[in-house]
């Protein structure tokens, strides 16, 4: 073997080794990224999850709003990416606790009894005005001492939460998407899909509750969602007691 052939062979071997090392490095990084994603969502390979869908509050039938359907499709894509499986059930068919399977619960408490139960049990500092009568406070959020009113189509709010049961052996989280309108539910699922890596870095696998504002949905749909505040502490604390009425007395 002369020097030219030897150099060619050595070059081919070096290129093969470099390609193999590059492939191994990319595979390692991809798997590490996938494991972090699976840990954040509580979705290891071949695990089962639950998609709890609400009903369309504006429909007399047991229908699902099209924006809630879009939200479920985005969540289904996340679940598939993690190598997990999903079962879709309606809010009135959910008859189980939480923590054994990852749960994604979509819709406000007025259209989703499962959401109402979660808010009552785990987020006592949150109240949603579900009174069907029109008025400035209809569908308004109260979180702690703050109130957030809706301007339909212009300024609408949604809670995005990752909650854990805090019980030994029950490590699967519950994700809540509780919006003032159906389009805000989809905005919250899209926000989670786009920002889950940043949220995982910031919160790890811990509980968080975020308040998002969907801006000008009549023009931009669910695409423009702004983070208003991290309301985890206020949402988990009991609501402040209303001030006692003041009695006036006149001297006789």
UniProtKB/TrEMBL annotation:
Is Membrane among the key words of this record? yes
Keywords, sorted A to Z: Membrane, Transmembrane, Transmembrane helix
Q: Name the residues that span the membrane.
A: 6-29
Q: What is this protein called?
A: Secreted protein
């Amino acid at each position: 073997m002369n020097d030219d052939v030897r150099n060619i062979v050595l070059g081919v071997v070096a290129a093969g080794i470099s390609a193999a090392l590059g492939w191994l490095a990319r595979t390692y990084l991809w798997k590490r990224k996938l494991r972090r994603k699976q840990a954040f969502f509580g979705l290891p390979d071949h695990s089962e999850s639950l998609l709890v869908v609400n009903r369309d509050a504006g429909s007399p039938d047991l229908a699902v709003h099209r924006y809630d359907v879009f939200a479920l499709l985005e969540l289904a894509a996340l679940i598939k990416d993690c190598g997990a499986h999903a079962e879709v059930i309606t809010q009135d068919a959910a008859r189980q606790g939480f923590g054994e399977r990852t749960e994604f619960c979509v819709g406000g408490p007025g259209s989703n009894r499962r959401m109402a139960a979660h808010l009552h049990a785990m987020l006592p500092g949150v109240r949603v005005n579900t009174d069907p009568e029109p008025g400035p406070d209809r569908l308004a959020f109260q979180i702690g001492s703050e109130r957030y009113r809706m301007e339909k189509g212009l300024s609408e709010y949604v809670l995005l939460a990752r909650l854990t049961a805090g019980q030994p052996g029950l490590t699967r989280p519950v994700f809540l998407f509780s919006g003032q309108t159906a389009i805000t539910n989809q905005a919250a699922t899209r926000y989670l899909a786009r920002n889950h890596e940043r949220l995982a870095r910031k919160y790890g696998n811990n509980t968080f509750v975020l308040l998002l504002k969907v801006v000008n949905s009549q023009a931009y749909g669910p695409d423009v969602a702004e983070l208003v505040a991290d309301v985890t502490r206020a949402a988990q604390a009991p609501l402040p007691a209303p001030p006692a009425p003041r009695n006036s007395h006149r001297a006789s």
